[in-house]
Design brief:
Structural class: mainly alpha
Largest sheet: 3 strands, parallel
Helix content: 40-55%
Shape: elongated
Radius of gyration: 32 Å
Strand order of the largest sheet: 1-2-3
Number of helices: 22
Number of strands: 12
Amino acid sequence: MTDLQTSLHPTVSADTPVRVRFCPSPTGTPHVGLIRTALFNWAWARHTGGTMVFRIEDTDAARDSEESFGQILDALAWLGIDWDEGVNVGGPHEPYRQSQRGDIYQDVLAKLVESGHVYEDFSTPDEVEARHKAKGEDPKLGYDNYDRDLTEEQKQAFRDEGRKPVLRLRMPDEDIAFNDLVRGEISFKAGSVPDFVVARANGKPLYTLVNPVDDALMGITQVLRGEDLLSSTPRQIALYRALMDVGVAEFIPEFGHLPYVMGEGNKKLSKRDPESNLFNHRDNGFIPEGLLNYLALLGWSLSADEDIFSVEQLVENFDIHDVLANPARFDVKKATAINGTHIRMLDPQDFRNRLIPYLQSAGLVGETLTDEQNAILDQAAPLVQERMNLLGETPGLLGFLFRSDDQIQIAPDAQKQLKESAPQVLQAAVQALEPLDHFTAEPIEAALRVAIVEGLEIKPRLAFGPVRTAVSGERISPPLFESLEILGKESSLNRIKALAAQLS
């Protein structure tokens, strides 16, 4: 460690209980990068027996919304990410919404101004640019620390002009170095970070102040956050130095910067990208177990050859020091495959019950299932659990079992694959099924094989396609003979005869 870090009070000691925080701004729909950050903080807290703090950074009135705040709560509840202190839970450091902590920030600001760590900056942007030009420098270089040493007379003269100062933190003249939990030692050269604004001219404190102040007052030991915030870390360390000096902070937390989540074409995943939207994945039929597994893989793994693990295994094995610094790509195909594995691991009754919301959203069943619908679902769910990767496939795979015969419409891709022999196949199926007394899968299969495979000499792979299309309207369906049993003799024959009439 170099200059600044070693000149300060110690950072977090090894025996200090872990306290991490998740502190999103409520500015839109939760995205996978944000939730991955929540997950890693949560997993580290649970692994170490530490504390997870959840607070809301809602001081941007123009962008923050209660709708977004509600969505964040909804997302965390759906995924099972809970917290020990914070919003809706309470704790010793209330309130946990920045918009309600204004008096606390003003008190800290007053201490920082009084101690000289923060000073008033009266310069206008035009004046800063003019000074750079006068020195032959790029006028867009940014603030030049000019107001650091203004005399009281100079400050008063500016006030007399009606100027309102912003408040800036005095950056130290030493290099700033820290040991990133993910990336190792990182150093910023002295002078590479200018004095930065901590409060606007109207007195309102900025994120640059309130975020570290809250972390300090709440005793946060590890700040685990996205790589995009890495460049702000020297500012935060410098502010911690000042906060310790005025008795607000006891130590500098450790920082760990989590890798970028990349999208298609290895571009950083944008909030606007569909695969970034957490609720899109929920609507498409990801289950929490599958999505949490995949999100954990965006920077961490259980072992080199284990991609599938439970939440319990994640908590048991997660170590922030094992997170990789390299960008992680969100691969929808891989995420979907992992989700499918978790679907197959579900208890059959649990799986069956999770299908209901997708049937409801498609209008196939009402708020409460009828006895008949419950019976259909009991029989149908086991037929698709091994075939499904997303619960959103439910209406497409099972919808035909909940529709009336006259609601079956033949999908274009199913229509396209019907061969010239389809009318013959359907006629043979009717003749084979009509005499059956026991309309169950085994006799259904035997009768259709005799009539179509043997009678019409059509290969088994192609023999039953027209029947499948007739009863389901789809090219792909659950196992045919079991589906016919669930539909029953009357509906099965009605549908087969309907397509036969249509084709003739």
